[in-house]
Write the structure tokens for this entry.
Amino acid sequence: MTTKDLADLIFPHVTMTVDDLEKRYPKRDLPIGAEVTRFAPSPTGFLHTGSLFTSLVAYKVAKQSNGVFYTRLEDTDTKREVEGSGKELLDQLAVFNIVPDEGYYGDSQKGNYGPYIQSERADIYRVVIKDLLIKGKAYPCFCTKEDLDALRTTQEKNHVTPGYYRQYAKCRLLTLEEQIAKIKAGVPYVIRFRSEGYHERKIEVNDLVRGKLFLSENDQDIVIYKSDGLPTYHFAHLVDDHFMHTTIVSRGEEWLSSLPIHLELFSTMNWQAPKYAHLPVIMKLDNGNKRKLSKRKDNEAAIAYFLKEGYPQEAILEYLYTIANSNYEEWHSENPNLSFDDFSFTFSKMSQDGALFDLAKLENISKELLARYSKEKLYDETLKYAQIYDKHLEEVLLKDPTFFKEIINIEREKENPRKDYIKFSEILPKNLFFYKEEYEEMFKKGLPFNSNFDKKIIYDILNEFMNNLNFDEVDEQTWFACLKSLANKHHFAENNKTFKANKDIYIGHVGDVAEMVRIALTTSKQSPNLYYVLKVLGKNEVIRRITKALEVLK
């Protein structure tokens, strides 16, 4: 009996060879230096922040080298699959304009190197596994779960490295006759890779992020083909990246321990391995200790959280670039008018340490970004957000676009625009007072005038302010000079410094007077620039609101 007899017994209908596959999937016709990268998610849940980070890096590397970025769905772990999540992952990537040149698109596939769904590539995997069986580089394993549990217990008791290897790989020692007999008898089995490595020997590898590394050889006879007829991750990775001609695999540093396995698999097949880049994992501080972002514990772990909160996609990507390359922020400050699409990413500028997720930094980036938007762009982007996540906001935006644009344009068209907003979801809450119905509801809750001032003083100031409205006729500087004059008339200093130096003369300062007007108009002590609030509300509405406040103060 020969290894070919064994291979034919296991795969009697597989007649295609590895050479046939090489012809089916020829090398790509790309320019010199072009990289082929991929995003290969498992359909096991939402798009993780770390997954967006790794896919962004892969996409950027491909695009800036005139290469190809593709997507592949790794759905061989059927027990963990979440229905519909594969499409959702790709839909969320598309929100960030990370769109593959080819591959799995959620509801379709495109490209010459598919299928791009692993469960649809079973015939390809069988060809390669049959080849390994014929070469004696793979073998059937008949060990049950109980056998493997007993093996681990023995290994732990004897303080040896756990696993299925060398003398502990008992099915590796079976003769061909014994293997064939068991298969013919219907004994369940998986197929394992026959490793030639030894963990006490080191291999030298070059990681694009971490440089030269010395890692222990793989010596584990890993399972490459499961009893359900699907390959394991490690084996599918080998076959897919070879026949899809991936040149760079970028993935989280937690996969570094798998690198010797993958390199040995490529070497055994005499295939050129792709270059590997093991990216830093995004971390979080928890009681003073660093840990990975947790799907279960942390909102920040899910990209959907940031989208629902209303952070602009551009801000999220810009923040991830600050993690990706240490020189990004310096480049951005030197090129404020350029997009991150113009930035040249390099693996050499990537930190090797896990980056702490800095929400305050993301918020600052988002605030700066929204401040640079024109009123038209901010309106359009807010509407896009509202149409998905906030129907009430959508109604407000569509009811009177011009009025909303007036509100958000307060002190926007200037060299240093106001930085009022971090995310789309907070724009309306910060401006509800502009809308009559919302103002009425807020008014019912009371006006928080400063109790240090007599109601009659507040009444007199508001009444005189209302009777001498002039914001439509004068600029802001002239208007504020008039407000100072009103303040002086009622024994309020023209600034806080003067008031503090002369408390025996003044009741307060002009800021207190402005606050009285602000509260009457907005029901709050905080608002955008008061002069522009008056202009947006208009004279009739200002008079109406101050009149209501005066009635309360009587």
